[in-house]
């Protein structure tokens, strides 16, 4: 879209919002069968158009150096036959979820005969802002449509060609399934001012979900006039307890940190009980070194981890998104919990232990969106939790927390059935 001036841009954004609101009104009453037809049709088209999608993605990859993308960001940007198949499977998994809209969450009959029902309904219009992840275009559209919401998609300029190609597939599938034409809209301008205009449209947009760097998310949280579902950072911890199986602890730590560095549920900090530090830290130091991970540690850990650098206080609160991990030794479970709650971003924390009391204490007192007991932090993910896919992970407590799938994009209303009752 060519925008001549600021007034044209403001009008364009207003039009997006108004069209999305109209589409949302239609979607709220559309049949589950049409939604299923869209999801299965989009999955089929993604597979059929894979060569075209990879060609479009190639243009984005070629331009990546001019945007200064890191290796981790380029990894998130890249499409392959495998990632396109994963997109298609994700749509089919969302389709397999129970139809949420119209579900009676609870009901009761009052003494006067009124039947009070609590019914699941869509939020309305979702404004979704994301960076470097073209596969998220399909995930977001799938979750929004399944939950009866219209969606306005604003991807990063670094993925413009990929996002446009995927959005074209989604539009074709929507038309074939009989969905409103504006159920899924892609913002067709790279002008960052468009985001600011859209964030003011609380009359038309119900909720905004930013997914990307902390700077983007903080900007959205500061400017949005509508509710924001978000997390700022993913400073995730693995705590190795005094009663840990150390072979399991090593396997979990390496997976949590190294399986994929540039994601929000990767471990950034390792906390180890002093009772097992002398045995565990040298072996995990060697395993991390083999994988090119730099260690920044407190004094107690440095004595047991040759080559570790001195950690600053900031190191314990940093989301590295790269080959660095902080390490701290603690004298008790209580100290571990206090340290993690003080330093974490309330995203994901894991404990490795054979002590059921320690596991329950950790799970009860850790204030994060997900707590893993004897499992990697990398499992905090909508697909891994059986949600089919996710539109993001929230560290808020209102309205949703943790991976946000179909049900997290719904609300409810009360529908009351009577037989002529009037209030006395």
Q: What key phrases describe this protein's structure?
A:
424 residues, alpha/beta, Aldehyde Dehydrogenase, Chain A, domain 1, Aldehyde Dehydrogenase, Chain A, domain 2, 2 domains, 7-stranded parallel sheet, 4-stranded parallel sheet, 14 helices, 16 strands, globular
How do you describe this structure in short?
The chain is an alpha/beta fold and 424 residues long. It is built from 14 helices and 16 strands.
Instruction: Kindly state the number of beta strands.
Output: 16
The CATH architecture of the largest domain can be named as: 3-Layer(aba) Sandwich
Strand composition percent: 15-25%
Question: Considering DSSP H and I runs of 4 or more, what fraction of the residues is helical?
Answer: 40-55%
Q: Low-confidence spans: pLDDT under 50, at least 5 residues?
A: none
* Overall pLDDT score: 95
Structural class: alpha/beta
Number of domains: 2
Query: Between the first and last Cα atoms, what is the distance in angstroms?
Result: 59 Å
Identify the CATH homologous superfamily of the largest domain.
Answer: Aldehyde Dehydrogenase, Chain A, domain 1
The biggest beta sheet is recorded as: 7 strands, parallel
Spell out the helices and strands N to C.
HHHHHEEEHEHEHEHEHEHEHEEHEHEEEE
Give the strand line-up of the largest sheet: 10-9-11-8-7-12-13
CATH topology of the largest domain: Aldehyde Dehydrogenase, Chain A, domain 1
Q: What is the C-alpha radius of gyration, as a whole number of Å?
A: 24 Å
Q: What is the CATH top level name of the largest domain?
A: Alpha Beta
What general outline do the C-alpha atoms trace? Answer: globular
- Our count of helices gives 14
């Amino acid at each position: 879209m060519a925008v001549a001036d600021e007034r044209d841009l403001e009008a364009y954004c207003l039009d997006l919002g108004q069209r999305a609101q109209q589409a949302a009104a239609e979607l709220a009453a559309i049949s589950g069968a049409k939604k299923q037809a869209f999801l299965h049709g989009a999955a089929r088209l993604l597979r059929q158009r894979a060569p075209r999608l990879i060609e479009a993605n190639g243009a984005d990859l070629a331009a990546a150096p001019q945007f200064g993308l890191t290796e981790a960001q380029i990894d998130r940007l890249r499409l392959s036959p495998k990632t396109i198949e994963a997109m298609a499977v994700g749509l089919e998994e969302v389709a397999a979820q129970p139809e949420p809209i119209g579900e009676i969450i609870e009901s009761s009959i009052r003494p006067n005969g009124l039947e009070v029902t609590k019914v699941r309904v869509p939020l309305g219009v979702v404004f979704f802002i994301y960076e470097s992840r073209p596969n998220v275009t399909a995930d977001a559209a799938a979750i929004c449509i399944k939950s009866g919401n219209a969606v306005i998609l604003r991807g990063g300029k670094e993925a413009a060609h990929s996002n446009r190609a995927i959005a074209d597939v989604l539009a074709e599938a929507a038309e074939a399934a009989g969905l409103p034409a504006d159920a899924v809209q892609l913002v067709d301008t790279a002008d960052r001012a468009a985001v600011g205009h859209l964030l003011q449209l609380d009359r038309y947009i119900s909720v905004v979900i930013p997914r990307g760097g902390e700077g983007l998310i903080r900007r959205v949280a500061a400017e949005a006039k509508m509710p924001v579902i978000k997390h700022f950072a993913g400073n995730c911890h693995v705590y190795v307890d005094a009663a840990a199986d150390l072979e399991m602890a090593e396997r979990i730590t390496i997976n949590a940190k190294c399986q994929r560095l540039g994601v929000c549920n990767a471990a950034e900090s390792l906390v180890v009980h002093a009772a097992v530090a002398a045995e565990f830290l040298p072996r995990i130091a060697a395993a991390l070194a083999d994988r090119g991970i730099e260690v920044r540690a407190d004094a107690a850990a440095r004595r047991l981890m040759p080559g570790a650098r001195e950690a600053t206080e900031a190191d314990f609160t940093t989301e590295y998104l790269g080959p660095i991990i902080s390490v701290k030794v603690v004298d008790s479970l209580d100290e571990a919990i206090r340290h993690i709650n003080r330093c974490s971003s309330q995203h994901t924390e894991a404990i490795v232990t054979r002590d059921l009391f320690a596991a329950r204490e950790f799970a009860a007192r850790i204030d994060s969106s997900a707590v893993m007991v004897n499992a990697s932090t990398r499992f905090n993910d909508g697909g891994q939790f059986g949600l089919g896919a996710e539109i993001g992970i929230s560290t808020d407590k209102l309205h949703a927390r943790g991976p946000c799938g179909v049900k997290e994009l719904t609300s409810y209303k009360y529908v009351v059935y009577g037989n002529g009752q009037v209030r006395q």
